[in-house]
Structures are given as C-alpha cells and as structure tokens.
Give the backbone structure.
Amino acid sequence: MPERGPSALWAPRAWLSPAGGPSGWREQVLLRIGGDGCWSEIADGVAPPADAERVAGPLLPGLVDAHSHAFQRAFAGLAERREAQADDFWSWRDRMYRVALRITPEELSAVAAQLHVELLAGGYTQVCEFHYLRHDRDGTPYADPLRLTWALADAAAEAGIGLTMLPVLYERAGFREPRLRDDQRRFAMGAADVWRAAGAINAARRPLLNAGVAIHSLRAAAPESIVTLQRLAGAFDGPIHIHVAEQTAEVDDCLAATGARPIEWLARERLLDRRWQLVHATHATPGEIDVVAAAGAGVVICPSTEANLGDGFADLPGWLRAGVPMTLGSDSHVCRDALEELRWLEYGQRLLHRRRNVGAAPEQGSASTAERLFDRAVRGGAAAAGLPAWGLTVGARADALVVDGEAASLLGMPPGQWLDALVFSGPARPWRDVMVAGRWAIVNHRHPAQQDIAGRCAAAMQAIWTDA
C-alpha cells in the first residue's frame, strides 16, 4: 500500500452510519481523514473543496469478515465430489485436515495473501482470523510459538487489509474424548497459551493488527479451560469468539454430556457478555436467542459455508427481532464476496419460509432487505473485530468502498435502490476502489501486488496438492 493517502474524500453520495443515528444515503459528502487513519470529520451537503480527492462513484463502508480460516482457502473447490454413500460436515472435516497437516508457514502466507486480496476485492477491509494452526506438521512446537501467526500477519500487511487475530483454545477431540486425535496435532493450545499469544500479538503494535481470543467449540475445550480463559480475560475489552451450535450432532452431544444445549450452557455458566461472538449459532432456539440478546453478545453468520457444509438455516428473523448484533464471515472461503454472502443470507430464508424479503421490516421503516442487512453487518463490525468504531462515522478507521458507477447492475437504477441492486442483481465486480485506514488498497479494480501474490499462491497450491 502507498505510504500516504488523501487527507479528505468527497463523494457525490455516501452511506453514512452515524453513531446513535439512522444510516442511509447522504448527498455531497465530505470525509476528512486524520493522521491516525480514522475519519476525523464527516459532513453532507458540502460542495467539493479543493483539498479533497473526489471519488469516482458512490461511497460505502467496508465490511468486517468476522470469521476466517485462511488456510482453508487452499481447500476451496476441492471437496465437491462425493465418493462414499454419504457426505456431511464431519466427512468434509476429515478431508479438510489434509491441508491443515500439509501446509507450511511459507505456503500459508502465500495462500493468505491471495485470500486477503480477494477479500478486499469482495468488499471486506478487516478480517477476523480464527487461528488454530499452531504447531509444526508433526505436532512439535515451533521455536517461535507464533510463527504461523506472523505468517498470516505478514500476508495481511502485504495485501493491506486489517487483521484481528484470534488464537484458539483447542485441546480435545470431543465431549468424551479428553485428547486430540493425531490428525488434530497441529491445533493443541491451552487457555494460558491463548492468553499469552493474544498479549504478544497486541504488544507487537503492528499497523492494522490486533488480537482477541477464541474457543474452538464446547466439544473441543474442557469447561474448566473455558472458565480459566474467561478469568484471564477478565479485564480484557477485546472480542471472544466461539463456534457454537453449528451442527445438530454437536447440539445432541452437548446435551448428552452437559444436560444443556451449547448456547444454553454458555448462559448457564454466566459466560456471555458483549465481548462474545457466537459463530454460526445455526441451531439456536428462540429462548437462546433472547439470552444472547440480553447479554449483549453478537452472532456471526457464514451463509456460503453453512450452505456448503449442509449445516442448516440460521434463524435470521429471530436474530433480527431480538436486535442481536450481527456480522458475516466467509469461514472456509468457498465465497470471498460480501454481497454474495448477504444475498444468500436472504435467499436461504426465502427458500426456508417460502416468502420474499424476509430480512425487511417495513413496520420499522426498513422496507429494503439489502439496506437493513447491510446496515446490521456494518454496525456489528466493531465488536466482532475488537475496534472502537466501524463504518462511515467519525472515529472509525477510514475504510471505504467506491462503487463502480459503470457496474452493469446499476445501469439506469434509481439511486435510492442502489444497495438493492448491488446485493440482489449480480454477480458483478462493483468495487472500483477500496480504502483501508486512509490508503487506497485497490484502485480501478487492481491491487498493486496482485500478479506477484497470485503467482506465489499458485506455486504454494501446487506444492500442497502434488502427490496429496
């Protein structure tokens, strides 16, 4: 990325998300950028000043990709054949472990750099990396326990995307299996290790890098370890992420082992608060949704991965009704496009409920499904990524997406329905330019390092899968 960016932008139209006020399109918007790379002033109805860079189209906030396993980008498209009588999440997982056991730090960095460029082009400017690859391929610790972490951080820095690292508590294979399986040997990490890793990442003070903590799942972490991590993080204001209630088998196993459903167990143990981000939560009951809302916790829905794995449908009406903060995740990276995730979030509900515009709420003044879901994803971004603010609002990092005014989906569209068209009339490549922290990461659809990054990714993929 360039060392310096513009001091101000002027957009003919921009989607503003003021703190405490309604989001929406505003005309003739001036956005000034402070020396810290955050929005210092935003005003609409302003003629373009001489010192502002005029953007080439409507301006939208970047989105947070709140759930990522970067190494799984090397597996995308390679699990779409069924060789046995049945295929489900658990058989997919066993095959996915093949790449987890093969990938080297150098290959991980190459694949992640390509992923991060793709995520930028797909409308994400921050990614939350749920990082459980920790040890060498034979399971022995690296001399630097954060070697794979730094490989991912280097890749993010090269691409110019913001990165929230989430070291993961992962210590057993299941509720009744006290140790990891051999094909999980790279994942071992206890509560104290997680806490030390998060501290070291934050202490490094790398630009655009911060850390939270994560728990793989209730099946993969003993209750006492979860409580220990919660105690260690007692004064910590960053995010705590967990996979939860993704599969019905997980819910059944949790009931058998603990007498409670996964979200019910978290609530029973008084763990949930506004820092917690429940990833998937596909099989949440209405009562559990109400408990999450009361705690102020958030939910991270990953529509393309949940569809790819056959997880089931999230209760989108329930989460929206309860006002739970909501973000999106690209998870296994079978899709790296934020608008497609939004589209399939809604389309899944239409298929399930056999009606249209499930995500809209005209009774609340939100007749547009796209606008309501997009706004919810933007507003949930700060908590998911552990940042103080998010969106086109003063104090948030100066991240933005410039819509390509020549995008086919917008031809002749009334400006008031541009978000409807961007989400539901595709596919397309709508983002002409992408800004992160006041600097242009993509200009006129091109990332400055994309050719070199793509070449290294191709070589890494060949090395990973040769003779696999």
